[in-house]
Amino acid sequence: MAKNIHLLKVASPEIAKKAKAGQFVVLRAVEEGERIPLTLYDWDPRDGTISLVFQEVGKTTKLLAGMRVGDRILNLIGPLGLPSHIERFGRVVCIGGGVGVPAVYPIARAMKLVGNEVIGIMGARTAELLILEEEMRSVSDRLIVTTDDGSKGMKGFVTNALRDLLGSGIRVDRVVAVGPAVMMKFVAETTRPYGIKTIVSLNSIMLDATGMCGACRISVGGRTKFTCVDGPEFDGHEVDFDLLLDRLNQYVEEEKRIAAMDC
């Protein structure tokens, strides 16, 4: 798809039959491996497959990137999490940053199917890292593309495009954002003065994904929530993003060290 970004199609008939926009799976590639969550990009109940898009950043994602047709994933559970709240809101802005685009795509598609006007905003650092542009265009009434370096579309961040859009006076009834935590934080801050309901899909550290271990706990509106069972979607104006970012950075050095080892 792009450098270090891969699409994996997995045979999983039971998950494909039940999957809905906004949900995710948790998998373990090998016996001694970690369990990681991946948001569902697409699914097909007819052929019993689900599609996952991931960035190759750690040991597990390196293992997944090396898989070939016929290889097996040791464990796969899902669909997990609460589905996205889909209804006819009016005009919905769906924002995807980097590998958040595959996660926001099925949400945008579902919003479009129930009659919303969908404005898509997608961004990446450079044109070479943009993924699923045509897919997003197919479910958007209007698509705005941004790149940090200006190599394609608007130069700047997705928040710059959102700020310009809202500043134009256009009515927006709902915003949905998926991407890096810092991106979602600034999307929420951009919409806050306008009082626009803003939904974010959080990427907190996750282990058991059943609400038992507490690793994915976050603070929303001053209350503790678990991303795996209470989310992954929350009101962005109530999320304590600083706490989330601190927790996400806890194991960065350990992850780098393990990723450098041979798989």
Structural notes for this entry:
The chain is of the alpha/beta class and 263 residues long. It has two domains: 5-80, Beta Barrel (Elongation Factor Tu (Ef-tu), domain 3), CATH 2.40.30.10; 91-248, Rossmann fold. Helices cover 28% and strands 30% of the residues. The protein has helices at 13-18, 59-65, 101-113, 133-138, 158-167, 181-191, 227-230, 241-248, 252-259, and strands spanning 5-11, 24-28, 35-44, 49-55, 75-80, 91-97, 117-124, 142-147, 154-155, 174-178, 198-201, 217-220, 223-226, 233-235. Strands 9-8-7-6-10-11-14 form a seven-stranded mixed sheet, sandwiched between helices. The longest helix has 13 residues, at 101-113. The radius of gyration is 18 Å and the shape is globular. The mean pLDDT is 94.
